[in-house]
Amino acid sequence: MTTVIILSVVISVVLALSLSIASVLFYVEEDPRLQDVVDMLPNQNCGLCGNPGCKAMAQAILNEDSKLTQCKPGDQDMRDDIKEYLESHPDESGEFVKVKM
Ligand code: SF4
Question: What is the pTM for the complete model shown?
């Protein structure tokens, strides 16, 4: 019984360390504008824009792959806010997103 407990603890510690190391090795830095754009979208995660959710839509906007009008629940104010935000917030290299309305 004691052996099983010790073995379980050892396996748990090894797995926890493996996950910690993997999270450091495979860390992907996210565009800081992504969450800001997500916050400006309606966050209904309805998929009407053709993306699997608002975060995916925000990423598609940043990638210049989607038009703001694809978000059906979004209104003109939302589109204007996102456009204004992205026109004043370049990426790390100074490039601006060409916002598609
Ligand atoms: S249509 Fe708008 S609210 Fe629905 S998932 Fe796309 S971005 Fe989100």
Answer: 0.77
